[in-house]
Write a sequence for this structure.
C-alpha cells in the first residue's frame, strides 16, 4: 500500500472515531482551536468541526512524524498507526488507552504511556502539555508574522492589527511560567532544534520568536502542499542558517551605497524635478541584485522586469547598469529626440541590456518593460514577453528565462489586474513557471492611509489565491531582506511557482519630490525626518562588527560619487537623446535588408490552399471519435475546398496554415477561441469518449512547420490581452492574436489598448503586430453583444482628417508606415486571409484591429473564391461596386459607402427594391488609415451621384464621425461641392437596443433611408 493510500485510510478511520468521542482531549489541532473550552472535543459537533477543518493536514503531519520517529507521537497514535499499517479495517485500528476511557464499553488495553517530558509523571496532563507544545510551534508558524517587527518606523503594524493573536500566548494552552523550564520532545514538523530532539519550552519559544517574530514575517502555512511548507520551514527554522560572511556583508553595503547615493546625486543636481526616487526603500537595489545573482547561479540568463515609476531610474542605473549618462540626459529638456516618437517621461521608460554578472561571471540579459502611470498594467505584458522568450528558446520549465515584478503596496491590493495576472500563473498556455514579486511597501498609497485603501490585513493577501509564499521583511534590515531574496530565488527555481517579497519600508519624500506629505501624514513624516538612512545604520553595524572601517566605507562612497560626476560630464556633451536607446524589446536584425517602401505580396499557390484545406477538413484517424455535428462541418469544409470556395473559418485556417508552413509561429488566445464563441472555428477537436484527448489539425500539416498555439484563456480581458501584447513584443515573426468573446468586452482591457497598443510606438518606439479580433455586428442581441466600439479605435488613430497624402506609387505603404494601427471591418474571408498574412509580410509591425463578423460567419454570400487568394491576389482596402451600377456610372443616382456586415443587408434591400442600376455600394474594408486615393476614384467615377455613408451603429458611434471629415477632404481635393448624407441609427447612449422588435424597426428605417434616391 502506498504512503498516500495509507494516509487516506488513516484519515478515513479518524472521522468515525472522532465523532464517537474516541479521540478525546489529547487530540488538538495545532494553531486551530485557541480557546480553552475547545481543548477537548466533548461533543459530536466539536469533533465534526475538527474534521471539517484542518484534520487532513493535522493527521498527515502526525503520520509523517510517526514514520520518521514512532516515539514522536502519543502512544495511542503510535498504536493506531501500527494497526492501520498492518491492515486493520476502519474502526478497528484505534485502541483506547486506560486514561481515555469514558466509561463506554470497549476493549481495554494496558500499555506504558510514552513520557513526552523528561521526568514528568505519566498522566493525561503530561500528554496534553506535549500536544500543546506542538500546537504552540504550529501557531508560531501560522501566526508569528502577525507580531513580527516589520515597520522600520515602529509606528504601524503591517497587518493593520496591533493585537497579539491568542494562539501566541502561553496562557492559551493552560501552561504556566514554571512550565517554561520543562523539556519537551520536538515534533518532526519543526527544524528549530537543529541536531537536538528536545528542548526546554523557554528555548522553544525563544527560537520560534527569533525565526518568526523579528524582522521577517513568513506567511506560508496556508499552502496545501506539505513538501513546500516543509521546505520553507527548513530554510527559516534551522538554527544559524541566516548567516553572512564578511565579503557578503561588504557587497550588501556597496550596493546600498549605490542605491542611496544615486538618489542623493539626482536630488542635488535636479532638486525641483520629479524622479520618484527610492528614498526609504534603498534596500530594493541589493534585493533585486541578489535575486538576479541567485537565479543566474541556478541557470537563468534572461530577466524581464515590470515595475511602476518609483525607483525606476535607480533600477535602470544600478540593477540593469544602463549607462548613467543616458539616464542623466533625460533630465535635460532641451535635448530633442534624434529619432521617431513623442517619447515619454523618464520614469516610464524601458530598456534592454546585456552584461556580465560579476558575481556569477555569467552573461545575462535584463529588460525593463516600459510602463505608463497605470501602475500594474505592465504585469501581464511582462508575463507574455517572458512566455514568448521561453517558447523561442525551448525553455519548457522556465529555468533560463524569468520575470520579476515590482509593485506598490496600494496598487498590489487595489488593482484588479494583479489578481488577473496571478490567475494566469499556473495555466498551461500562460504559465512562466514562477514570478518573483517584490512589493515596495510604502505603507501608504499617495496620500491614502492603508486602513482606508484595503480591506485585507496585508497588501499582499491577493497572492494567497495561488498558494504563493509571502515573505514580509523590514526594509531597514538589509541582511534579512537579502536572505529572503535568496530563499525566494531558490523557491522559484525549485518549484516553478510565484513567490512574494514584501519590503516593508517608507517614503522619505512625498508621492514625488515636490509633494508635501505633511498635509495628510504629519505623525508618520515627523518620524521619518528623524529616521537615519538604512545605509547609515548598516554601515555603523558593520564598522562595529569590524567588517569594514570608517575609512573603507567613506572610500566606497567617494568611488561611486565619482562615477556619478563623470557620467554628469559625459551627459553634458550629448547633443540629442535617442529614443531607440530605451527599447525594451529590440528586434536585432529584423529591419536590416528590408525595403521599407515595398508593399508585400500575400497570395499563395492554389496547391497550398488545397493541401491545407484538405488536411484541416479531415477528421483524425484511428479510434478518435468526434462529435456528429463536427463530422458534418468537416464534410462541408471539404466540399468547399473541392469547389474552390472558402467561408470565414476556412479562410482563417488557410491564413494560419500557410504562415505555419512558412515557419511563422501563430498564437490565438482568448475566451473560447478553440471552438469559437459562435461555434465556427473548431481548431481543437475533442474525442467524445476519452477525456483530455484532443487533436489540433493545424499542428499536423507539415513535418517541419511552425507550432500553432490555440488556447482558451481565463475569463479576463485586461490580463490576457496584456499577456498577448507582451508575447507579440518578443519576436516580430510571431503572429499573435487575441479574440474577444464579444467585441463589446474589449472595453475591460481599455487600459492596455490606450496606454500600450495605440500609443506604444509613439511613446517607446515599440512596434507590435498584435491582432485584436473583436466580434461586431447588430443582430438584435442587445447593447452588450453588438458593438466593439469601432469609434474608439478610429478616434485614437493618428492620421489627420484634413490631410490628403501625396498621391503616387507608395501611397498605400506610406500610409501604413505613418499610422499607429490598422482598423478594419472586412466583408470577405479573402480579405481577412490577406490581412493576416500582411501582418507578417510587412517590413514593419503595426497592431491590427478587426471588427470580425458574427452572422457573416455562415452567410452563403460572404464567401470567397480561391481566385481571391492565389498568387497575384492582394489585400483590398476598398471593394468597389462590381454590378450593373458600375457599368452605367453616369446614371447612378447614389453612391453608398459602408463597412462590414451592413453591406449584405444593403445589397439584399437594393435587389428587393429593384435599384441595382441606380445605387452603387462601395465597401470600405480598411477604415484607418483612410483610403483617400481609392475613395477619390469612386467619387470621380460617379459624377452625378449623391454620396451617402451608411452604418448600422448609432450616429455618435461607428465610423461616421471618423469618415465624414475625411470624405469632405476628398471632395475638396477633387473640387466637388456635394453633401455627404448619413444613413443609420440616431445618436444614443447605449450601443444597441435590447428589444428585438425595436432592432428590426430601426433596421427597416435605416434601409429605407439608405435606399432613398429622390
Amino acid at each position: 500500500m502506498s504512503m498516500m493510500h495509507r494516509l487516506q485510510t488513516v484519515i478515513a478511520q479518524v472521522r468515525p472515531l472522532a465523532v464517537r468521542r474516541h479521540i478525546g482531549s489529547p487530540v488538538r489541532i495545532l494553531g486551530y482551536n485557541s480557546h480553552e473550552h475547545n481543548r477537548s472535543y466533548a461533543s459530536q459537533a466539536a469533533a465534526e468541526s475538527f474534521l471539517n477543518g484542518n484534520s487532513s493536514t493535522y493527521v498527515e503531519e502526525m503520520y509523517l512524524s510517526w514514520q520518521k520517529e514512532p516515539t514522536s507521537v502519543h502512544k495511542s497514535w503510535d498504536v493506531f498507526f501500527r494497526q492501520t499499517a498492518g491492515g486493520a479495517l476502519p474502526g478497528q485500528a484505534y485502541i483506547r488507552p486506560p486514561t481515555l476511557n469514558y466509561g463506554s464499553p470497549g476493549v481495554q488495553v494496558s500499555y506504558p504511556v510514552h513520557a513526552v517530558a523528561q521526568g514528568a509523571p505519566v498522566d493525561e496532563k503530561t500528554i496534553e502539555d506535549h500536544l500543546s507544545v506542538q500546537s504552540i510551534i504550529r501557531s508560531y508558524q501560522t501566526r508569528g508574522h502577525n507580531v513580527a517587527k516589520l515597520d522600520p518606523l515602529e509606528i504601524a503594524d503591517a497587518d493593520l492589527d496591533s493585537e497579539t493573536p491568542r494562539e501566541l500566548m502561553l496562557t492559551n494552552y493552560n501552561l504556566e511560567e514554571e512550565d517554561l523550564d520543562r523539556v519537551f520532545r520536538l515534533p518532526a514538523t519543526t527544524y528549530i532544534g537543529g541536531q537536538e530532539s528536545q528542548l526546554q519550552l523557554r528555548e522553544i519559544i525563544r527560537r520560534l520568536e527569533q525565526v518568526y517574530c523579528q524582522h521577517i514575517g513568513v506567511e506560508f502555512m496556508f499552502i496545501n502542499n506539505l513538501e513546500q511548507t516543509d521546505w520553507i520551514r527548513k530554510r527559516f527554522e534551522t538554527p544559524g542558517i541566516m548567516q553572512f560572511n564578511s565579503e557578503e556583508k561588504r557587497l550588501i553595503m556597496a550596493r546600498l551605497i549605490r542605491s542611496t547615493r544615486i538618489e542623493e546625486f539626482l536630488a542635488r543636481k535636479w532638486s525641483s524635478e520629479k524622479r520618484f526616487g527610492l528614498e526609504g526603500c534603498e534596500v530594493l537595489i541589493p534585493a533585486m541584485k541578489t535575486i538576479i545573482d541567485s537565479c543566474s547561479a541556478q541557470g537563468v540568463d534572461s530577466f524581464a522586469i515590470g515595475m511602476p515609476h518609483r525607483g525606476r531610474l535607480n533600477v535602470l542605473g544600478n540593477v540593469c547598469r544602463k549607462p548613467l549618462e543616458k539616464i542623466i540626459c533625460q533630465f535635460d529638456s532641451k535635448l530633442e529626440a534624434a529619432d521617431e516618437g513623442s517619447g515619454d517621461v523618464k520614469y516610464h521608460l524601458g530598456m534592454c541590456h546585456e552584461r556580465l554578472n560579476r558575481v556569477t561571471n555569467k552573461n545575462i540579459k535584463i529588460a525593463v518593460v516600459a510602463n505608463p502611470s497605470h501602475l500594474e498594467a505592465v504585469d501581464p505584458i511582462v508575463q507574455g514577453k517572458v512566455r514568448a522568450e521561453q517558447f523561442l528558446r525551448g525553455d519548457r520549465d522556465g529555468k533560463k528565462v524569468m520575470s520579476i515584478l515590482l509593485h506598490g503596496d496600494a496598487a498590489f491590493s487595489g488593482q484588479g489586474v494583479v489578481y488577473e495576472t496571478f490567475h494566469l500563473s499556473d495555466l498551461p498556455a500562460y504559465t512562466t513557471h514562477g514570478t518573483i514579486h517584490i512589493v515596495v511597501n510604502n505603507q501608504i498609497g499617495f496620500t491614502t492611509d492603508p486602513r482606508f485603501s484595503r480591506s485585507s490585513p496585508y497588501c499582499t493577501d491577493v497572492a494567497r489565491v495561488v498558494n504563493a509564499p509571502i515573505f514580509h521583511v523590514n526594509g531597514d534590515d538589509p541582511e534579512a531582506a537579502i536572505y529572503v531574496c535568496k530563499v525566494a530565488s531558490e523557491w522559484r527555481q525549485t518549484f516553478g511557482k510565484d513567490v512574494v517579497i514584501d519590503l516593508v519600508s517608507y517614503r522619505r519624500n512625498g508621492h514625488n519630490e515636490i509633494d508635501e506629505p505633511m498635509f495628510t501624514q504629519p505623525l508618520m513624516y515627523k518620524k521619518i525626518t528623524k529616521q537615519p538612512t538604512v545605509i547609515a545604520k548598516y554601515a555603523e553595524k558593520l564598522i562595529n562588527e569590524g567588517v569594514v572601517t570608517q575609512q573603507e566605507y567613506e572610500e566606497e562612497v567617494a568611488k561611486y560619487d565619482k562615477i556619478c560626476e563623470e557620467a554628469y560630464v559625459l551627459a553634458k556633451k550629448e547633443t540629442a537623446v535617442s529614443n531607440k536607446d530605451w527599447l525594451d524589446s529590440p528586434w536585432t536584425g529584423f529591419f536590416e535588408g528590408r525595403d521599407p517602401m515595398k508593399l508585400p505580396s500575400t497570395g499563395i499557390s492554389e496547391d497550398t490552399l488545397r493541401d491545407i484545406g484538405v488536411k484541416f477538413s479531415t477528421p483524425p484517424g484511428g479510434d478518435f471519435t468526434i462529435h456528429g455535428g463536427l463530422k458534418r462541418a468537416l464534410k462541408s469544409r471539404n466540399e468547399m475546398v473541392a469547389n474552390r470556395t472558402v467561408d470565414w473559418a476556412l479562410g482563417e485556417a488557410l491564413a494560419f496554415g500557410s504562415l505555419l508552413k512558412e515557419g511563422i509561429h501563430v498564437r490565438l488566445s482568448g475566451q473560447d477561441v478553440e471552438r469559437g464563441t459562435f461555434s465556427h472555428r473548431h481548431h481543437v477537436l475533442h474525442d467524445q469518449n476519452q477525456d483530455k484527448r484532443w487533436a489540433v489539425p493545424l499542428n499536423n500539416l507539415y513535418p517541419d512547420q511552425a507550432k500553432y498555439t490555440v488556447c482558451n484563456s481565463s475569463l479576463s480581458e485586461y490580463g490576457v490581452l496584456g499577456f498577448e501584447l507582451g508575447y507579440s513584443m518578443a519576436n516580430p515573426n510571431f503572429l499573435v492574436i487575441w479574440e474577444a468573446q464579444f467585441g463589446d468586452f474589449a472595453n475591460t482591457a481599455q487600459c492596455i489598448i490606450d496606454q500600450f497598443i495605440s500609443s506604444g510606438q509613439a511613446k517607446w518606439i515599440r512596434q507590435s503586430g498584435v491582432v485584436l479580433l473583436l466580434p461586431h455586428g447588430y443582430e438584435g442581441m442587445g447593447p452588450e453583444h453588438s458593438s466593439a466600439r469601432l469609434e474608439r479605435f478610429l478616434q485614437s488613430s493618428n492620421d489627420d482628417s484634413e490631410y490628403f497624402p501625396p498621391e503616387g506609387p507608395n501611397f498605400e505603404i506610406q500610409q501604413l508606415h505613418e499610422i499607429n494601427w490598422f482598423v478594419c471591418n472586412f466583408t470577405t474571408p479573402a480579405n481577412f486571409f490577406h490581412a493576416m498574412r500582411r501582418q507578417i509580410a510587412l517590413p514593419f509591425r503595426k497592431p491590427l484591429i478587426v471588427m470580425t463578423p458574427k452572422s457573416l460567419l455562415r452567410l452563403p454570400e460572404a464567401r470567397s473564391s480561391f481566385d481571391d487568394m492565389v498568387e497575384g491576389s492582394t489585400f483590398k482596402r476598398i471593394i468597389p461596386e462590381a454590378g450593373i451600377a458600375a457599368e452605367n456610372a453616369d446614371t447612378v443616382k447614389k453612391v453608398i459607402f459602408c463597412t462590414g456586415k451592413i453591406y449584405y443587408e444593403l445589397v439584399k434591400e437594393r435587389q428587393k427594391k429593384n435599384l441595382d442600376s441606380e445605387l452603387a455600394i462601395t465597401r470600405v474594408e480598411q477604415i484607418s488609415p483612410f483610403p483617400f486615393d481609392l475613395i477619390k476614384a469612386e467619387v470621380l467615377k460617379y459624377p452625378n451621384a449623391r454620396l451617402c455613408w451608411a452604418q448600422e451603429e448609432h450616429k455618435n458611434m461607428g465610423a461616421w464621425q471618423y469618415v465624414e471629415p475625411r470624405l469632405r477632404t476628398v471632395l475638396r481635393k477633387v473640387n466637388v461641392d456635394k453633401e455627404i448624407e448619413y444613413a443609420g441609427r440616431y445618436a444614443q447612449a447605449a450601443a444597441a437596443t435590447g428589444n428585438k422588435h425595436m432592432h428590426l424597426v430601426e433596421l427597416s428605417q435605416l434601409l429605407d433611408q439608405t435606399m432613398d434616391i429622390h
Q: What stands out?
A: The longest strand covers residues 946-954. The chain has a mean pLDDT of 87. The CA atoms of residues 168 and 511 lie 37 Å apart.
